[in-house]
């Protein structure tokens, strides 16, 4: 079943994940793109990216939205015309969206891969993870931290924010499935709630912050 999982975060916020298993032709069923999005689609050389793009439109349909309800600002950040807040992600054969009427939201899906060990120092103090039992556990934790910071960046949206220097994710246990995080940038402090889940060697992290 392509609709892989839905999660009701609270009364105002929900997310959905799609596992892309269909052909590109099948994914076109019931989908009509705006000229802007059709132009974006036509420029995609990767079939994987095209299928992800279409699957996200099917996720929008689960919430009674069409492609025409989705607009992008000058930074490429997605917005919904009715004012609800949205974030979008894709990684390999998984895509996801989170929508809220009351909270700023961000979502990120990442494949758990050893290559994250090589770039960890660029986004988090690596010594924090030396106590973990094995490499697999380190990869899992680093992937959650990276996903959290990606989600926060999608919400915050200020250029110049450094994953390493400005975004702090509080430590957590895997069984908690949640933590908190802060962004301190240009003298301003913002607090966020972080939640995460793992499936099929992938990690999904989503962040929320109350509207001001």
UniProtKB/TrEMBL annotation:
Leader sequence segment:
none
In terms of InterPro entries, this protein maps to:
4-PPantetheinyl_Trfase_dom, 4-PPantetheinyl_Trfase_dom_sf
Return any one Pfam family short name: ACPS
Keywords attached to this entry: Transferase
- Recorded GO terms, molecular function? holo-[acyl-carrier-protein] synthase activity; magnesium ion binding
Gene3D superfamilies reported in the protein's UniProt record: 4'-phosphopantetheinyl transferase domain
The residues covered by the 4'-phosphopantetheinyl transferase domain are 105-195
Annotated protein name in UniProt: 4'-phosphopantetheinyl transferase superfamily protein
């Amino acid at each position: 079943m392509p609709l892989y999982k839905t999660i009701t975060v609270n009364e105002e916020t929900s997310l959905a994940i799609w596992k892309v298993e269909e052909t590109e032709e099948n994914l076109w069923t019931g989908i009509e793109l705006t000229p802007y999005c059709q132009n974006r689609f036509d420029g995609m050389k990767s079939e994987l990216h095209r299928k992800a793009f279409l699957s996200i439109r099917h996720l929008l349909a689960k919430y009674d939205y069409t492609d025409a309800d989705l607009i992008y600002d000058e930074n490429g950040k997605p917005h919904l015309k009715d004012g609800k807040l949205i974030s979008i992600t894709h990684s390999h054969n998984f895509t996801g969206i989170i929508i809220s009427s009351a909270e700023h939201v961000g979502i990120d899906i990442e494949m758990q891969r050893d290559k994250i060990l090589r770039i960890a120092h660029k986004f988090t103090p690596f010594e924090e993870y030396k106590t973990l039992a094995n490499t697999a556990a380190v990869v899992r934790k680093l992937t959650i931290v990276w996903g959290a910071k990606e989600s926060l960046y999608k919400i915050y949206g200020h250029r110049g924010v450094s994953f390493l220097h400005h975004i702090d994710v509080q430590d957590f246990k895997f069984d908690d499935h949640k933590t908190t995080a802060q962004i301190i940038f240009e003298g301003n402090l913002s607090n966020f709630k972080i939640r995460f889940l793992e499936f099929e060697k992938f990690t999904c992290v989503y962040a929320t912050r109350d509207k001001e």
